């Protein structure tokens, strides 16, 4: 630094002295990651469940999405609020307008003051919301995470949309049926180190080892980085390299939409089968113009519905959140709580020409 | 904090209108901060009367702790704006402080070492801002828009998109809103703010340094020729905002138990809005610390009250925005009206 005036020099000198002093001091002792006390209190699961109890009337549920006005989460929350009406409760959606780590915290405090019976949260940051959620549970407010989990000790249940295994295997199963279990296939993924994508791809590869896929060959995994243009170019590249390609699986909403756009305008339309994970609104026109026969995604309405029933079951004392407990979720039937309070919604929903117009997200 | 008269003494002979106009302007500035104080009291009374849970100890502890970082940064920011400067890089420095805390903790450093190192980084950031303003002679708005991006960028380099979370309970407990000073609803960050606010008020309203700030803000050149060490004082002020912002980064990290590079995104606007709402003139030279503190608390309490009543976030943003526009506009509109009346009165005389 080029500080020529006395004040600047003095400040730097002071800073340097303080730094060396601090380093000297801390060399002796201090609280480090390894020495610090690890907190390991497990919340909930202490009370006894009464599976026969009726769902309480007049339960107050609050949905706290990652951010308000997010169309996907609005569908989840609205379905949950609708479900509450079925068992005589009420629901509402509140939340911040930005999805930053800390923005949900004020809302949790508010919901505690308003004495809600249950909070359902899609966490922006698994830990930033932890303190207030623990406080809520201390005041006997039930906490259910959905869509995006909090740290395990900060909620009683986590409603997971679908298991990674289910997603990976079912995409291969669907594509296999579509191409008659024969021919070259490729995968168009997002980024090379996306955890969820890579987990799904591992399960796809594992599924492909089964004998019935012996005539199907995975020739390439391409990465479109979840950028529309790059995904489009990667699809182009795949078709140049493998003109006899039979199918593409794109387990990313950006990738599948870009791939469909390329195929719909090319000579490969109708010859190459495209499947993967997409949203109905993005994919509607490609389903209608026969570029894509089907694709899948979990059903956000069912996710909200299940979350709503799970929260009501907790608040009515039917379940406590312990592994192995069972509860009924209205029209969706019975669910069992898995390890670490996880409840899996089920198989992804398959969207095709017949049902796509009933979804709007 | 009845230190308002100091403002009057400090205002130097700014060549603005007649003597009478100026005295009424000063009167208005004075009345504005008391008005914000009164509005704060009114909002609290309305809250207590209408909203369940508003007056509970839990909620009050939360409401004030929720703006602890904004309040801490608002203290040096008040001094800076009084001196006619602004620092937009404060929230980025908070983010850098948070990211560094996380990265160093993850690397196995002792927390007792991390704190002074992070504070020093804050000082260094402040020095850079101050150096660019005083030595290179760039306007503070331009400099700190640049360092706003720079410090946030460095925060991302330090920690990437990760979050570091496993901070020691012994320290985290000092920042959370469930730990209060025995017998009160004051949390420790809020208590610290109260102490620092008193010190800042004394510095601003009862010392020569404070008087110099008003002088620099009112007219820098005149202050310089009056023998005030303008550059050194400005440098000091930027170091103070840097230091407090880095410290706020540590508080933020412990309070949420989550160190991230994007922590406190957009906080600079909240800090500056609170300060302006409290009647600190953006052109410098006017205002009281009482007003600034009242502004910070008003924004915090209002946010809490609106959220408790399920008022949507968008409406909250609009309410804060309107308050801010009103706070900047009202004194000017009244001043213009007063001046016109004076001119007319002067013109009426033959």
Automatic annotation (TrEMBL), chain A:
Domain of life: Bacteria
Region (Disordered) location: 30-49
Ranges of residues in domain Periplasmic binding protein: 62-318
Keyword Signal: yes
Classification via PROSITE patterns: PROKAR_LIPOPROTEIN
Region forming the signal peptide: 1-29
Listed GO MF terms: carbohydrate binding
Compartment(s): Cell envelope
Pfam entry (one): Peripla_BP_4
Gene Ontology biological process: rhamnose transmembrane transport
SUPFAM superfamilies the UniProt entry points to: Periplasmic binding protein-like I
Alphabetically ordered keywords of this record: Signal
InterPro entries: Bact_Solute-Bind_Prot2, Peripla_BP_I, RhaS, SBP_2_dom
Cellular component terms per the entry's GO annotation: outer membrane-bounded periplasmic space
Protein name in UniProt: Rhamnose ABC transporter substrate-binding protein
Protein species of origin: Streptomyces brevispora
Gene that this polypeptide is encoded by: rhaS
UniProtKB/TrEMBL annotation, chain B:
Entry GO CC: plasma membrane
Top-level division of the source organism's lineage: Bacteria
Species of origin: Streptomyces brevispora
Chief place of localization: membrane
Signal sequence region: none
Compartment(s): Cell membrane
Full protein name: Autoinducer 2 import system permease protein LsrD
Keyword annotations of the record: Cell inner membrane, Cell membrane, Membrane, Transmembrane, Transmembrane helix, Transport
């Amino acid at each position: 630094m080029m500080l020529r005036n006395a004040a600047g020099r003095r400040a730097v000198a002071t800073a340097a002295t303080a730094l060396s002093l601090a380093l000297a001091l801390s060399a002796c002792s201090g609280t480090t990651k390894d020495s610090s006390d690890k907190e390991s209190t497990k919340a909930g699961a202490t009370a006894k469940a009464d599976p026969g109890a009726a769902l309480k009337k007049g339960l107050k549920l609050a949905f706290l999405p990652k951010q308000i006005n997010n169309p996907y989460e609005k569908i989840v929350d609205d379905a949950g609020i609708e479900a509450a009406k079925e068992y005589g409760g009420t629901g509402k959606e509140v939340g911040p307008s930005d999805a930053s780590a800390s923005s949900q915290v004020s809302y949790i405090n508010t919901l505690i003051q308003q004495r809600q019976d249950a909070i359902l949260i899609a966490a922006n940051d698994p830990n930033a919301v932890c303190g207030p959620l623990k406080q809520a549970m201390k005041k006997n407010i039930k906490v259910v995470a959905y869509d995006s989990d909090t740290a395990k000790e900060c909620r009683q249940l986590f409603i997971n949309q679908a298991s990674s295994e289910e997603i990976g295997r079912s995409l291969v199963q669907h594509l296999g049926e579509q191409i008659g279990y024969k021919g070259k296939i490729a995968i168009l993924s997002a980024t090379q180190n996306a955890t969820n994508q890579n987990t799904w791809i591992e399960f796809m590869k594992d599924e492909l080892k089964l004998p019935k896929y012996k005539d199907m060959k995975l020739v390439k995994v391409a990465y479109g980085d979840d950028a529309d243009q790059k995904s489009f170019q990667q699809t182009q590249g795949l078709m140049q390299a493998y003109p006899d390609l039979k199918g593409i699986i794109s387990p990313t909403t950006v990738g599948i939409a870009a791939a469909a756009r390329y195929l719909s305008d090319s000579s490969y339309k109708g010859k190459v089968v495209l499947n993967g994970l997409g949203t109905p609104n993005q994919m509607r026109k490609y389903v209608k113009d026969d570029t894509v026969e089907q694709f899948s995604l979990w059903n956000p309405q069912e996710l909200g519905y299940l979350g709503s029933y799970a929260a009501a079951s907790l608040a009515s004392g039917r379940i406590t959140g312990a592994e192995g407990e069972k509860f009924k979720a209205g029209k969706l039937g019975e669910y069992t709580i898995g390890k670490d309070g996880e409840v899996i919604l089920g198989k992804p929903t398959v969207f095709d020409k017949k049902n796509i117009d009933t979804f709007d997200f | 904090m009845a230190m308002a008269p100091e403002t009057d003494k400090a205002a130097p002979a700014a060549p603005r209108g007649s003597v009478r106009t100026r005295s009424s302007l000063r009167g208005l500035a004075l009345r504005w901060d008391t008005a914000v104080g009164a509005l704060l009291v009114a909002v609290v009374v309305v809250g207590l009367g209408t909203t369940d849970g508003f007056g509970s100890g839990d909620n009050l502890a939360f409401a004030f702790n929720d703006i602890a970082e904004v309040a801490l940064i608002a203290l040096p920011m008040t001094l800076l704006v009084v001196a006619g400067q602004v620092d937009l890089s404060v929230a980025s420095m908070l983010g850098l402080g948070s990211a560094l805390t996380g990265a160093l903790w993850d690397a196995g450093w002792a927390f007792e070492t991390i704190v002074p190192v992070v504070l020093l980084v804050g000082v260094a950031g402040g020095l850079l801002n101050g150096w660019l303003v005083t030595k290179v002679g760039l306007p503070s708005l331009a400099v700190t828009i640049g360092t706003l991006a720079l410090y946030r960028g460095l925060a991302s380099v330090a920690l990437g998109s990760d979050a570091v979370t496993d901070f020691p309970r012994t320290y985290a407990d000092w920042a959370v809103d469930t730990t209060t000073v025995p017998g009160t609803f004051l949390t420790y960050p809020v208590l610290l703010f109260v102490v620092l606010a008193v010190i800042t008020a004394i510095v601003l309203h009862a010392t020569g340094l404070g008087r110099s700030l008003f002088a620099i803000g009112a007219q820098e050149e005149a202050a310089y020729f009056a023998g005030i060490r303008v550059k050194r004082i400005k440098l000091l002020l930027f170091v103070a905002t840097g230091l407090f912002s880095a410290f706020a980064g540590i508080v933020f990290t412990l309070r949420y138990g989550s160190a991230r590079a994007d922590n406190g995104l957009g906080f600079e606007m909240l800090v500056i809005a609170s300060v302006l709402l409290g009647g600190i003139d953006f052109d410098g030279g006017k205002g009281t610390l009482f007003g600034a503190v009242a502004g910070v608390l008003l924004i915090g309490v209002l946010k809490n009250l609106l959220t408790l009543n399920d008022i949507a976030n968008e409406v909250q943003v609009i309410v804060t925005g309107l308050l801010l526009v009103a706070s900047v506009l009202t004194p000017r509109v009244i001043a213009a009206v007063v001046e016109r009346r004076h001119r007319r009165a002067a013109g009426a005389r033959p």
